[in-house]
């Protein structure tokens, strides 16, 4: 079994993700598109295999994507070879230009479970924005807490185009003190009954309470923060929603 990497999308995880999530959900895509302007520079950290990045390119926007998963970026390049992408860790990325709009989709900011590191990332993103720029993103809320499992259970299985079967087994448990949802996962690929590849993923997410992220954003220098509970931009008022969406600027 391959080396354990926290929240790293390896080859089997990427293959399953591509099968299950071929396109961005229309409501979520439209939410992020609503902030985009032609002629402005856009950055998508954690762009993955491009299910948001590619629709932006197809609509004529000037967008760059960064991701630390080489497997994900390879999938993206197969679909759109001319996409502007950079293989890098978000903590190492050092752009020479400022961006008008930065977004992180799919609640991926919740993957930064170490709050100190999360604040460092928020600070870096703020510094990548031009003075009138906006940062838009989503996080998972405590409503997404899973029931604790005693053992690994099959969550989903898919067939590849080569007719191999990929099986995902996961085990969920929640840590109250840190608000961390742990979901260690085992990906297995089978050729009929023969196991031909396996991969472990140390998947963790921080589940947010209402008002928590707003505090972090203000600490790092964002002065204007709007919190939504839906892609229709309904204002969030409590924890009773599956996600919080944030629109941030510092004018």
Description:
By secondary structure, the chain is α/β, with parallel strands linked by helices. The protein folds into two domains: 11-142 and 208-249, Vaccinia Virus protein VP39 (Rossmann fold, 3-Layer(aba) Sandwich), CATH 3.40.50.150; 144-205, N-terminal domain of TfIIb (Single Sheet). It has helices at 11-20, 26-33, 53-58, 70-79, 115-128, 212-219, and strands spanning 41-45, 62-67, 84-87, 99-104, 129-140, 153-159, 165-170, 173-175, 180-191, 194-206, 224-228, 243-249. The chain has a seven-stranded mixed β-sheet. The chain starts with 10 loop residues before the first helix and ends with a strand. The model has no long low-confidence stretch (mean pLDDT 95).
Q: What layout of secondary structure does this protein have?
A:
Blueprint: H1 11-20, H2 26-33, E1 41-45, H3 53-58, E2 62-67, H4 70-79, E3 84-87, E4 99-104, H5 115-128, E5 129-140, E6 153-159, E7 165-170, E8 173-175, E9 180-191, E10 194-206, H6 212-219, E11 224-228, E12 243-249
Parallel strand pairs: 1-2, 1-4, 2-3, 4-5
Antiparallel strand pairs: 5-12, 6-7, 7-9, 8-9, 9-10, 11-12
CATH topology of the largest domain: Rossmann fold
Mean pLDDT across all residues, rounded? 95
Overall form: globular
Q: Which residues sit in consecutive blocks of at least 5 with pLDDT less than 50?
A: none
Strand order of the largest sheet: 3-2-1-4-5-12-11
Count of discrete domains: 2
The count of strands amounts to 12
C-alpha termini separation: 49 Å
Structural class per helix/strand content?
alpha/beta
Indicate the CATH class of the largest domain.
Answer: Alpha Beta
Assigned CATH architecture of the largest domain: 3-Layer(aba) Sandwich
The portion of residues assigned to helices is 10-25%
The arrangement of helices and strands along the chain is: HHEHEHEEHEEEEEEHEE
Tally of individual helices = 6
* Biggest sheet overview: 7 strands, mixed
Beta-strand content bin = 25-35%
């Amino acid at each position: 079994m391959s080396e354990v990497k926290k929240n790293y999308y390896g080859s089997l995880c990427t293959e399953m993700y591509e099968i299950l999530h071929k396109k961005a959900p229309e409501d979520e895509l439209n939410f992020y598109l609503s902030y985009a302007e032609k002629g402005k520079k856009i950055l998508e950290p954690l762009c993955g295999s491009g299910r948001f990045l590619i629709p932006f390119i197809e609509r004529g926007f000037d967008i760059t994507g960064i991701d630390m998963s080489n497997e994900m970026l390879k999938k993206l390049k197969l679909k759109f070879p001319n996409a502007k992408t950079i293989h890098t860790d978000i903590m190492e990325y050092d752009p020479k230009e400022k961006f008008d709009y930065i977004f992180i989709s799919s609640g991926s900011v919740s993957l930064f479970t170490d709050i100190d590191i999360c604040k460092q990332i928020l600070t870096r993103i703020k510094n990548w924005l031009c003075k009138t720029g906006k940062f838009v993103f989503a996080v998972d809320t405590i409503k997404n807490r899973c029931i604790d499992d005693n053992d690994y259970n099959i969550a989903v299985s898919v067939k590849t185009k080569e007719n191999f079967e990929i099986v995902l087994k996961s085990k969920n448990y929640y840590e109250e003190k840190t608000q961390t949802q742990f979901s260690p996962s085992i990906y297995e690929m089978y050729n009929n009954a023969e196991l031909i590849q396996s991969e472990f993923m140390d998947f963790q997410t921080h589940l947010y309470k209402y008002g928590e992220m707003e505090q972090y954003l203000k600490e790092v220098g964002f002065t204007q923060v709007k919190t939504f509970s839906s892609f229709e931009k309904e204002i969030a008022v409590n924890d009773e929603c599956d996600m919080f969406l944030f629109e941030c600027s510092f004018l």
